[in-house]
Amino acid sequence: MLNQTRDALTDLRLDVTNYVNKKLAETVDDLKFFRNLIIIIFVVLLLQISLVLTFYVIRPLKKSFNQVISIAESIAKGDFSTLK
Prior knowledge:
Layout: H1 2-76
């Protein structure tokens, strides 16, 4: 009886080990998929944020800088009428 119990426990241990290893591999695959999904979502969000910044922050600043540059260039030429 002792040998049968020992063999049964050994089989049980091997079955549990195989089951855990199988589930662990599935879990690792799922985690890799979610990691890749999060990276893709993050990249898309970064692109959207950069587009928003370009249209609502950088373009108005560029327009203002261009106005300042044109005023500075006209003053450099001696035309002070642009100053108000």
